[in-house]
Each structure stands twice: as structure tokens, then as C-alpha cells.
Amino acid sequence: GGRYFAEAGAYHGKRGTKVYFDGMGIENSAGNSSYQVNAAVVEEMVLQTSGISAEVNADGPVMNVVPKEGGNTFRMILNGNYSGTGMESSNLTAALRARGLETGNKTIKIFDEAASIGGPIKRDRLWFFGAARTWGMARQFAGVYWNKTQGDLLSPPGSDLEVVQLTPWVDRPLDVHSGRWEWYDTYLGRLTWQASPKHKFNILNDNQIACNCGSTSSAQLQEVGGGYRFEPNRFIQGTYNSPITSKLLLEAGLGASISQWNAFWQPGVQARTVSITDTGLGVSYGATATYRGHPDYTNRYMLRAAMTYVTGSHTFKTGFQREHLVTDNFFIADGNVQYTFRNGAPISILQRTTPYLELDRTNDLGIFAQDQWKVSRFTFNLGLRFDYVNGYVPDQDIPGKPDPKFFDRFPGMPLSNPWVGERKLTAVNGIPSWKDLNPRVGVAWDIFGDGRTALKTSVGRYVAKTNVDVAVLLNPITTSVNTAVRSWTDTNHSYYPDCNLGDFQANGECGALDNQNFGKSNPSAVRWSDDVRSGWGVRDFNWEFGSEIQHELTRGLSVNAGYYFNTGGYYRNTDSAQRVSDNLLVAPEDFDQFCVTAPKDPRLPGGGGYQICGLSTIKAEKFGQNQTLVEPVSRFGKDIRHNHFFGFGVNTRLAKGIRLGGGFDAGHMSKDQCFVVDAPGLTTYAIGTTGGVWGPQTATTIDGERTCRVDTPIKGLAMVKLNGSVPLPKEFSASAIYQDQAGAPLEAIYAATTAEIAPSLGRNLAGGARTVNIPLLMPNRLFEGRIRRLDLRLSKGFQLPKRTRLHVNLDAYNALNSSAIQALNNTYGASWLKPTQILDPRILQISCQLAF
């Protein structure tokens, strides 16, 4: 808490959170919220987590911001809060140091200042509302350093490709440049016009200039992190409401969420600075591997309309939403290369086809009809929604033309590639073309007819939220060979490749490019079959059921309890429940299986020494053969994802204004991919956005337990939240929030060597591979200690003259100074289970509000 508005991630296993502003999406074309809501304009925020009506396409939680508007009385509110270095404690304990965490994050500054004013331009007819806000933070992140010798070159003077000397600046003085600045400036205006008693218009414009100015990763120096300036993010909206009669209401709106991710170089980086990754040191430095220069637009354009008709016991509503998603990305790279070193010595060069301008488009249409029908003590909600998404790529000319701002931010950056020529790529349509019918039904029962006890039940089908991902994946640029690698033996230690990089064959110090189709269409590019690119019911979806009982025990005291089930858990295109990738050139019989014995280690279950079996590796004669086709899961088996949750909550208002509330939520999640596409067992292991990446397989076991089914138990999902507030004398009040949730799941990625594998496999790994990553732990089985946090607030109100009121708060976030671990090193070795992120230490924050 205490920082800034951010989009939530997942709820009850469902991803796909959507954020709306007055009923229209604010997310960019990639599905993220680069535009940040100005809190000074928020009248209320409505959160729905289940039982969502047919009006909305959402397979996860929905947040809708209801904005303020002016009225017949002038009102002004000033807000501010601040926290800095002298207001933060330290929670780096001896136990954490013993586990390898030497330093913690340090807050330099947190600030938030806002002013809003609203009132009449013409009484009863025209009103205005305006809000200006600036907020952000600067932090020093543990293990994140600048390069002290960024200006010292190892390459020859005047080289077109410059290699900087690496010296992490561990003792840099603490200042605003030591950490990551993140700030937002936003200026919003809204006009409301009551043209007549039956016609009301709202127009809103919010301009936002923001910066994500650096890196938070200890695996790269700050110069590599790059930065983005949003100049501007802009949200524009117009709405219309018309109660034609007491029974008929018309609504309409249009809007645009404009997101411009304008990248920039960090200090010390220029067009000739090469990005370097040192695999021996485990760090990247020099420059960012690639930048999204100008243009870099991720825009969403929206249109909605609806009609509501009320008659007797029925409230009928029908309408539509249409969104148009636009992404224009101009990709560049310093020198169009990236070097790989091992312990300071060059070993390879990656060449890129940059620069190029990539264009991606997606249209999203939803049409719905629903009826609320009251019958005695029952209220039925019957809805049906048609969803249609169509992506496409327009004609593209490579390299394309940059925005004029490009030349200011990237002086000297070439606008053509020296190794590949100009290209013309024709448009591609129907990537994807998906249609779905989504029924949604709900019923609420006033059990005793006194309005104190209600049973609410709903069931519905929901599809994955829309972004440009599929268009990006199937864009002819993406399906070209845009990178290729060649070996580099720096025989004269000049840190400059003495070879002709335009010659794709071996020459000088450089080996041949590993892909001779560099700069051309990739014959081995991933393709999608027609029945996953288009059709009915092809899009990822989930069925959701919820049943909840609410009961008022007595005046001021109510309880609720519920059971919730859904089949969600997919994540964009990286973890689909509808599609799998099939290598057409191999079959299950083209793999050999082997076992590996886990190391002896008291931190492993049973002290280790157990076997991981059913691991797969390709046979030598099939190594390197790949032609991937994305196909329906149904051709191979069933991808089954079930999430069961239950919850209990209580809210009470006691005498003298005392308020207490809280709840408990827990559940069980399962993901079953026990079918075979190519390899019968796991071939390698990594950790992705949604946890361990297993993929469909049936053979792999850890200590006899199959890994193709992943179960997350109650202890990994249980959560407790408590809150309360107490009025105190002299206009003081105190409030608290307590949270208790599961710690991070433990993973162990073990790099098994050929020497360990060969006795079981009967041969070495194909292709000369020296190691393969395997999991030592079943996923979501073991967890770090629970994360418990208490936040406190002490408030004081002051009534000032002329109807002016001042409210002052003192907040203590993480008041008990917990150092609970939030993330760990998952690579088995000397640093395994080393904490990489802990709760921020206790920090005090002062805030105030002055209302006129």
C-alpha cells in the first residue's frame, strides 16, 4: 500500500482483470494499464469478482471507475502525501543475511499531490470538473547498480561498435538517480451538459505524462534497463444518457485510451554502445538489447450503446461494445547486434534485422441482451452475449519510418540495416477470427421475504479478454528470421569483431550465421491451423459457478458465505487451455527417456536422493528438426483446469461508530495436462508467468508422483483479511488492515549434466548439450513462510471556518516491520532459496486533505 494505482493480477485462479472508466476500457492494446487512473476524479470504484452480467466481456475481476462530475455548488479538494528516507525502518534480519540477502530495498521518496475543483458554468445546465495530480516514487533496489566505468571503452577508439568496461557502482552515493524513478503527471477536465431533462452529455479528457525510468532487476545494470516516457498517455471519453420515458433509457459512449511508450537511452548510452550479456557473471550491461523507439503506440478505441426498458416485473437491456486495438512499434537496437561474453571474454554475436516498424490490429465486438425478472421472492437474471474478435496486419514496408521524436531521443541511430534490404510485406487477415456465444444466468432468492437473508447463485461462460497477441505472433515480421547468432573468437583481444558481418559464412574471427535465412521469411516459423485461427468456441474460455448466502443477523451485523468454481487458469497465448504446439517432424517414439537422482540435501523432501524419471530427450537423428503447428488440444487429449474456492465474511457496525470486518478465502486448484503431443515426458523445465512450465506429457514423475497434474492445496491459497476503524475523542480516529496469505511456492531447477544422465539414457544428450534443466520439486507443494502484514492509520479532523475541513492522516505500512519473503532464487545451487524480494520495511506516510 501507499504507492500508486495498479492493475490486479488474478482471482480464484482466473486471469484477465479488466479495468473500466465509466463503462469503457482503459487498457492498452496489449491488455495492460499503461494509463493510470487519476484518483482525484474517482467518485467510487466498483469491483466484481463473479456473477458478472452479459454486459461485460470479462473472464476475471472487473473494476469500474465511476468518475466525479461538477454540480451547482463550487467544491475544491486538495490532497497530498509524502514519505522519505527518514521515515522508513530496516527489516533486514540476521536470518535473511544467513540466507544470502545482504541488502534490502530503500525508499528515497514517495509523493502524491492532487487538486480538484468542480462547480457550475450555468446552473442546472452546464457543470465542470477538473483535477490535476502528480505522484510517484524513487527507490534504491537491492543489487541494482549503475556502471561506474560506462564511459571507459575496451574496443578501439572510434569504433562503430563500442564495448564498455564493466564496474558495478556499488558505492554510488544515494540520490534520485540511484533508484528507479516512476512518476505520473495528469491533468483532467470533464464537462457535463444537461441539454434538456431527457438528454445529458459528458465529455472528458485526461492528459498524462509519465515515466518508468529504470530497471528493478539485479541481473542487469541500470544502463540496460532503459526507460519509457509516456508522452502523453491520454484518455478521451464522451457519454450520453437519455431517459426517454419513465420506462425507456438510452445510453451511448465513445472513447480512446492512447498509450505512447517513448523509450530513451539511459545516461552513458549512445547509438554505438553494444548490449552485452556475460553468462559467466550472470549480468547484462552496456545498453538495452532492443528498444521500442518512436512510434510505439498501443491504443484502444471504444464505442458502446445500450437500451434499457422497464415494464412491470421485467428490466430488459440490450446493447453492444466495439473496440479497435492498434499497435505500432518501431524496433531498434544499438549497432543492430548483441554480444555474449563468458567471464569477460567474447564468445558470440547476435545480429538483428532492426530497425523495423511492426503494425498489429485487432477488432473486438460484443452484443448482449439480458433481462432481470422478478417473480415473488425470486429475481432472475437471464443473459446472452455474442463475442467476436478479428485480428489483422496491414501492409508493412520494412524498415518503415520513425516518428520525428525518434531523432531527438536516439541521435545517430541508423534508419536502415546494413545486412538486409528493404522488404514489402502484404496484409494478413483473420489472425484470429473467433466467435462465441456466452450464456449467463443468475437467481437471487429472498428466502424469508424480509430482505435479511438472500441466496444468490449464478452460472456463466466467459471468454479471454482481447489484446493484439495473436496478430503479433502471426505477423509476417514475427514469422521472419529477425535474429541469428555466430561464434566469435576474439584472437587479438580488441573487443571488436574482425570480420565482415554482412558475409553470413565464416570469415575472419567470426563463424557462420546459424540461420542462413536471416532477414527472410522463416520456413520453420510457427503456424496455426485453420481450426484454431478461426471458428466458434475456439477462444480460451471458462465456465464459472457461484453460490453465496447473505444474512443479516441483527442490525449492524451481517455475514456471508459462498462456494465458487471456475475452469479458468489460462494466460494469454503462453498458457492456453485450447491450443497446443505440435512439432510435425517428430513423434513420441523419437524420444528416449531417462532418470536423474536428486542431490542429497536436507532442504529437499526426505533429504533428497529420490528419482526424477520419465524425462525425455530427442534422439540424435531427429535433433534440430522443427516445424511447429499450433493445433486444438482436442486432437490429443483434454486440458482440464478446475478451481474450487469457498469464502466467509463478516461485517459489523457497533455503537459509537466502531466498525469491524473481515473474511477468510481458501480453495484448491488443479491443472491436468496428462496427454502426449510430442515428447512423452518433460524435456526441459522453466518458470513462466503462471508458474512452472510443464506442457502436455504423461511420463515424468518426481519420487513416483506424476507431474502432468499440478494441484495447489488449500495452504497455498488460503487468505485472511481483517479491517476495522474506531472513532476517538476530539475528532481522532484509528483504523487497521491485517492480511495473512501464503508465501511464495518453492521451486528447484536443477541443471543435470550429461555425466549424470548418460548412465540412465545410455548415451550423451543430442546436439552436444552439456546440461538439461529438470525440476526437483512438485510444483505448488512446498511454500515459504506465510506473509503477514498489518497497516495502521491515525486520523484527525479539523473543522475550519467557511465550511472548510482539514483531514490529516499518519499511516504506518507494515507496522510490525515484517520481513516476510515474497520471492526466492529457484535455481538449485549455492544460491538456491536465497531471498530476492521481501516485504518493504515499515514506513510512515503523512497525508492530508483540505476540502472547501
Shape: globular
Integer average pLDDT:
92
Helicity range: under 10%
Q: Give a short account of the largest sheet.
A: 22 strands, antiparallel, barrel
Number of helices: 6
| The number of domains | 3
> What's the N-to-C terminus distance?
27 Å
Note poorly predicted spans.
1-8
Q: How would you summarize this macromolecular structure in one to three sentences?
A:
By secondary structure, this protein is mainly beta. The protein is 4% helix and 51% strand.
Question: What are the defining features of this structure?
Answer:
852 residues, 6 helices, 3 domains, mainly beta, 5-stranded mixed sheet, 4% helix, disordered N terminus, 22-stranded antiparallel β-barrel
Describe this structure as you would to a colleague.
With 852 residues, this protein is mostly beta strands. The protein has 3 domains: 73-114 and 799-852, no CATH class; 123-437 and 457-538, no CATH class; 574-783, no CATH class. It contains 6 helices and 51 strands. It has a 22-stranded antiparallel barrel. A hairpin with a 2-residue loop joins strand 10 (180-196) and strand 11 (199-212). It is globular. The chain starts with 9 loop residues before the first strand and ends with a strand.
SSE order and pairing:
Layout: E1 10-11, E2 14-15, E3 18-21, E4 24-25, E5 42-48, E6 62-67, E7 75-84, H1 94-98, E8 106-122, E9 126-140, E10 180-196, E11 199-212, H2 222-225, E12 227-243, E13 248-258, E14 261-264, E15 275-278, E16 283-285, E17 291-311, E18 314-332, E19 337-342, E20 345-352, E21 356-375, E22 378-393, E23 396-398, H3 405-409, E24 423-425, E25 428-446, E26 453-463, H4 469-473, E27 483-487, E28 527-528, H5 530-533, E29 534-536, E30 541-554, E31 557-566, E32 579-583, E33 591-597, E34 611-618, E35 628-632, E36 640-653, E37 659-672, E38 686-688, E39 691-693, E40 701-702, E41 705-706, E42 709-712, E43 719-728, E44 732-741, E45 749-753, H6 754-761, E46 771-775, E47 787-800, E48 804-813, E49 821-824, E50 835-838, E51 843-851
Parallel strand pairs: 3-6, 15-19, 25-29, 28-35
Antiparallel strand pairs: 1-2, 3-4, 5-6, 7-8, 7-51, 8-9, 9-10, 10-11, 11-12, 12-13, 12-14, 13-17, 15-16, 17-18, 18-21, 19-20, 20-27, 21-22, 22-25, 23-24, 25-26, 26-30, 30-31, 31-36, 32-35, 33-34, 34-40, 36-37, 37-42, 37-43, 38-39, 40-41, 43-44, 44-47, 45-46, 47-48, 48-51, 49-50
